[in-house]
Amino acid sequence: MRFDSYGDIDVLNVVEVERPVPGPGEALIAVKAAGINPGEASIRNGLMHERWPATFPSGEGSDLAGVVESVGPGVDAFSAGDEVIGWTDQRASHAELVLVPVEHLTGKPAGVSWEAAGALFVAGTTAYAAVRAVGVSAGDTVVVSGAAGGVGSLVVQLARRAGAAVIGLAGETNHQWLLEHGAIPVAYGDGVADRIREVTDGHVDAFIDTFGGGYVDLAVGLGVAVDRINTIADFAAVERLGVQAQGTATAASADVVREIADLAAEGSLEIPIARTYPLAEVREAYRELAQRKTRGKIVLLP
Ligand SMILES: NC(=O)c1ccc[n+]([C@@H]2O[C@H](COP(=O)([O-])OP(=O)(O)OC[C@H]3O[C@@H](n4cnc5c(N)ncnc54)[C@H](OP(=O)(O)O)[C@@H]3O)[C@@H](O)[C@H]2O)c1
């Protein structure tokens, strides 16, 4: 998948490129599944140019799961045929073949589907970082915005595993899912602060914002200490209020990916898959993502 200039989804094209050859320390992966993420859409349409500029032609995608095709010189941790989960920092996973440094790979547990495996790097490490950042522990009451989204659905489950009571802000269609995962669903929109106070008796220990658009201010208004507020979407609020902004970058390691994958394999963590698309329908996949209405992840199947 390539794009040659910033723009809307119509700049995305599936093209034939040369077969990559693994160099020292690299593996060539035949991608079985690769998640898509809102940040990729922001990079593609140029909104992140100051922070993370693109160079053209650009590929896209970090998340991946697949089968090792071949390895480069000096690689003995993996060999052809191994099933792996990992990531690339080269915006390259939305492809049939991708080169990956082997330290970005871990074995795929047999009990994890390809879709879930290919979707868990960005969302999983981000959720892991956010829960760790606010120090969620047993007895805490934690509010999560975007509680059914790709990241939020994992934050909710990880915070529950840490023993917290979790209030999940979500649309009505996701309330049953939140209940089934041990969270208390609360509708967002007008009156949300009062609804949160009602179900928490006015006491909230931590707030994890995965949506932006004012939830950090809401958290401060609820009396949550700034060091127990983490946002992955509202960087202006981070500057203004000094809340935390821990995301993928602070938890990106093969060990964390493996930990999340193991939880999924043992059935302790659901990686909800909203929908899968063939690579050829990459534009449709990002069109759906832009609606911001998915529960869990949208995944490309090259
Ligand atoms: N900093 C980092 O490391 C990092 C990493 C990953 C993602 N991010 C950012 O984090 C954000 C979330 O990513 P994601 O992949 O989880 O997105 P996503 O899956 O597209 O999120 C979709 C969710 O947003 C919810 N939503 C829509 N309108 C809402 C509102 N007004 N209030 C609360 N929730 C609302 C929807 O809930 P309902 O369907 O229930 O309405 C839906 O479940 C994005 O901005 C992304 O760029 C940052």
Would you write up a description of this structure?
It is a single chain. With 302 residues, the protein is of the alpha/beta class. Helices cover 30% and strands 21% of the residues. The strands form 2 sheets. Strands 1, 2, 3, 4, 5, 11 and 12 form a 7-stranded mixed β-sheet that branches. The protein has a 5-stranded parallel β-sheet with strand order 8-7-6-9-10, with helices on both faces. Helix 2 crosses helix 3. The chain is globular, with a radius of gyration of 19 Å. The termini are close together. Bound molecules: NADP nicotinamide-adenine-dinucleotide phosphate. The site of NADP nicotinamide-adenine-dinucleotide phosphate has 30 residues, from helix 1 and helix 2.
Set down the secondary structure blueprint:
Layout: E1 26-35, H1 38-44, E2 63-71, E3 83-87, E4 97-101, E5 105-107, H2 114-133, E6 141-145, H3 152-161, E7 165-169, H4 175-180, E8 184-186, H5 192-200, E9 206-209, H6 215-221, E10 229-231, H7 235-241, H8 248-251, H9 254-265, E11 273-278, H10 282-290, E12 297-301
Parallel strand pairs: 6-7, 6-9, 7-8, 9-10, 11-12
Antiparallel strand pairs: 1-2, 1-4, 1-12, 2-3, 3-5
Helix pairs in contact: 2-3, 2-9
Bound molecules: NADP nicotinamide-adenine-dinucleotide phosphate.
